Amino acid sequence: MRGAEREAPTLSELKREIRRLHGCASEFERFVTIPEGPGRARRVVAVLALKDHPARRCYAWFEPSGFGMECLAVLHGVEIGGPEDAVRHVEAFERATRDRWAQEYA
User: pTM for this structure?
Assistant: First the structure.
């Protein structure tokens, strides 16, 4: 993983993380900008075609975390039909996780 001091990840870094996370090669298709919204930062999501994987596509981006930059790579599927869905699902998961921690440690 990379340090938070660099501005933007490279496409090769995204592809390397997809291989590490999902065990397959990927081919870049396009970037999609997800605009800022209530409680949401603007994100630039890479859409990548997966090779030799049951999912056809992967939606990936980097976000800052407590450990530098973290790659989020969401597979295309029944509930994930595009990059907007991928971002929404990650946000929902993060909210649920925060809520669960808040309840357990309140």
Answer: 0.81
